[in-house]
Amino acid sequence: MLTTMQELRFASEPENIARVERLIDDLRETNGFDEASYGDVLIAMTEAVNNAIVHGNKLRPDSEVCVEHEVRGNDLFFRVSDEGPGFDYEHVPDPTSPENLEKPNGRGVFLMRQLSTTCTFLDHGRVVELTFSDVFGH
What we know:
Blueprint: E1 6-11, H1 17-31, H2 35-56, E2 64-72, E3 75-81, H3 108-115, E4 118-122, E5 127-132
Antiparallel strand pairs: 1-2, 2-3, 3-5, 4-5
Helix pairs in contact: 1-2, 2-3
């Protein structure tokens, strides 16, 4: 079930998150994966893309977000890239700390790390790679 890397590019506009949601729906229909995996993939990927649009590219519609994906056996791999300056992904505040519980944002990186099997940041935080293992092995 190995495919080649597929790419989706779009302007840094929040409404384009729907394109990623459709992509995940299409992957689920084409390859079939369970409800728990679907929820994890959907939440983690919408967080990754939202971060790229809002924090990476600062909502500049002339900046692009690139979402690459590939089915690797029973695993699903994604790479999300933005054109922003990057960020210090090693020192993101913990949203579960008491002082952060009431804050309305700051959970994206935490959710990506919790919901994916692996979450790797590259290029000073401009790229995040997410792997979801055994989504097709059920």
